[in-house]
Amino acid sequence: MHAYRSHSCAALTKANVGENVRLSGWVHRVRDHGGILFIDLRDHYGVTQVLCDPDSPAFKEVEKVRSEWCIRIDGEVKARADDLVNPKLPTGEVEVFVRDIEVLGAAAELPLMVFGDQEYPEETRLRYRYLDLRREAMQENMKLRSDVVASMRRRMWDKGFREYQTPIITASSPEGARDFLVPSRLHPGKFYALPQAPQQFKQLIMVSGFDKYFQIAPCFRDEDPRADRSPTDFYQLDLEMSFVTQQDVFDTVSPVLAGIFEEFGGGKSVDAPAEWPQISYRDAALWYGTDKPDLRNPIKMQVVSEHFAGSGFAIFAKLLEQEGTEIRAIPAPKGGSRKFCDRMNAFAQKEGLPGMGYIFWRAAEDGSGMEAAGPLAKNIGPERTEAIRQQLGLGLGDAAFFLGGKPATFEKIAGKARTVIGEELGLTEKDRFAFAWIVDFPIYQKDEEKGGYEFEHNPFSMPQGGMDALAGDPLAVRGFQYDLACNGYELVSGAIRNHRPEIMFKAFEIAGYGEDEVRKRFGGMVNAFQYGAPPHGGCAAGIDRIVMLLADEMNIREVIMFPMNQRAEDLMMGAPSEPLNEQLRELRLRVLPPEA
After folding, report:
1. How far apart are CA 407 and CA 410, in angstroms?
2. Considering the entire predicted model, what is its pTM?
3. What is d(CA 416, CA 411) in angstroms, rounded to the nearest whole number?
4. Rounded distance, CA 273 to CA 262, Å?
5. Proportion of the chain above pLDDT 90, given as a percent
6. Alpha carbon 305 to chain centroid, angstroms
7. CA distances from 300 to 18, 148, 413, 415, 496 (A)
8. Which helix (H) or strand (E) holds 401?
């Protein structure tokens, strides 16, 4: 017999009754039923109930074991009585009578319990991550992640892509402020960097004549932490293709991701790729208040400035006299009660606004039909409120909320309000994955501090219209850049690349960078583009975030094996740590004390 096991803890069935078997695993829990000891023995695959009574030669040793001890047992498989069968377990029809036991690893007093659904502080869970990972939910999340990555690889190979690896130690990137730097021992005073993404390398792969590249790529970025973003490192499905248009990239990656969500989405509906809308960046901001809209929520915001211009509501009327201002409405079907409107007004105040104007439509007190209610309705009168109602397509029992000013000052809060309204009124579909391509990103924005223009989004995107587009108003230039949003998260970001040196130099010149500086910063890529670079484009899909959605988790740390905490610390391994003096001397480095 094998030294540790003849079967896994999920393998035994009635067909094994009468066999002598060997199992190894962890003591999930111990129960004493009148002198008979029952142990749920757990391994990676499942749970088997084993039992021991005083007649067994192993009884005294079995009495000693506690939760999370790692043990090996030998015993005989017996059928459970019909009334004791556990239908929830694959092994629920049998149990193993213990004849021999060996303690493979005793456990000290546990800082967190593996059995049960107790909640523990994140600090405890991350400090003892190896125990946290033994819990059933975490085991399932990590298996899901592994299966998703394997499926991604298969799907990419099936589409004619090959996987190539790019360097982990490289030069600091143009976005160097977020780089993790690595000091060079052989070149004192110089530093390598961990790549924020394989961006330049994958473009150089295209210049090298490889037509389709992909990689499950580790990326390193010194980020500010968020619930849906790791503060140090993450993985992405990275891909690039030559001789493609934007639509070719969509047609390639959409079925891969749709297939992943169909395979692992737990039965939730997945919009067919042909139905994924393409929404301009500008429209996404207007309609949803974000460039990663959740389309499960049907609410679409609209501009209603004309109904408030010159109206009796002085706050909005005077606001509209200023250049660049507008009033937007957030429709709220089924939200037509003063109680709900007051609740949303309080939400706006918590977000730092004075409040949020509203109108709701109710049955008229005199029985004459429907009337508009709320402070705004009284100020602007029945004709204007009726025009607003008709524009928004609302009716009896509905409401609308209003925000005004320069869009940049309220768009984000409007987007949050839209989300809250959709959730509270039950409008957001829960059993669906809704995708949308966000396209037509602006390349430039005004530099309010220095004057002139600066890059608003990816500077390496090909401008729509090429060199001709760069001859006009920079704020009108749109790039072949795109994101894929799903359920309120950005899953994919990509672009058709600017592979023409003369267009690249002109694009950077508008943002205040001379040709010499471009050559200095991006010399490797610019030089390569002078030797017959093909048109190319691609994207990257965030694996951690995809698995987070599939696992129905709200925090990305629930689907990463060994994540950092919110302060970018590894509590388990003690990182970051102070270097030894010998290390600093060898690298010719000195550490300055932190500023007071």
Report:
1. 6
2. 0.93
3. 9
4. 12
5. 86
6. 35
7. 66, 33, 14, 10, 29
8. strand 399-405
The neighbour count for residue 168, using CB atoms within 10 Å, is 13
pLDDT of residue 176: 58
Burial category of 175 from C-beta neighbours within 10 Å (exposed 0-12, middle 13-18, buried 19 and up): exposed
Half-sphere exposure of 496 (CA within 13 A, CB side): 22
Confidence tier at 426 by pLDDT (50, 70, 90):
very high
State the greatest distance between any 2 C-alpha atoms of the chain, in Å, as a whole number. 94
480: DSSP letter? S
Q: Is the pLDDT of residue 366 over 90?
A: no
The C-alpha atoms of residue 336 and residue 342 are separated, in whole angstroms, by 11
Residues linked to residue 405 through DSSP beta bridges, in sequence order? 326
d(CA 288, CA 270): 21
Neighbours of 360 (CB within 10 A): 24
pLDDT classification of 175: cutoffs 50, 70, 90: low
State the pLDDT at residue 53. 94
Amino acid at 580: L
CB of 556 closer than 8 Å to CB of 223: no
Residue count (the chain): 596
| Residue 259 token pair | 């297939």
B/e letters for 493-527, b = 16+ CB within 10 Å, e = fewer, are: bbbbbbbbbebbbbbbebbebeeeebeebbeebbe
Compute the distance between CA of residue 79 and CA of residue 91 in angstroms, rounded to an integer.
Answer: 10
Locus of tokens 């580790």: 218
Question: Residue 306 has what DSSP assignment?
Answer: G
How far apart CA 238 and CA 203 sit, in angstroms, is 11
433 phi/psi in degrees, rounded to 5: -110, 115
The pLDDT score that the predictor gives to residue 352 is 87
Average pLDDT over residues 189-218: 95
pLDDT in tens, 132-170: 999 999 999 999 999 999 999 999 999 999 999 999 999
At residue 94, φ and ψ (nearest 5 deg) are -135, 170
Residue 177 has pLDDT above 70, yes or no: no
Q: Which of 333, 300, 307 is nearest to 386 (CA)?
A: 307
Q: How far apart are CA 456 and CA 477, in angstroms?
A: 11
**Residue in the structure block whose two tokens are 């590894």:** 570
Residues 530/501, Cβ–Cβ less than 8 Å: yes
Share of the chain above pLDDT 70, in %: 99
Angle between the N-to-C axes of helices 246-264 and 543-550, in degrees from 0 to 180, rounded to the nearest 10? 40
Mean pLDDT of 110-117: 93
Judge whether 128 and 83 are in contact, CB under 8 Å.
no
Please name every residue paired with 441 in a beta bridge, in sequence order, or none if there are none. Answer: 479
DSSP 8-state assignment for residue 101: E
Q: Which element (helix H / strand E) includes 368?
A: none
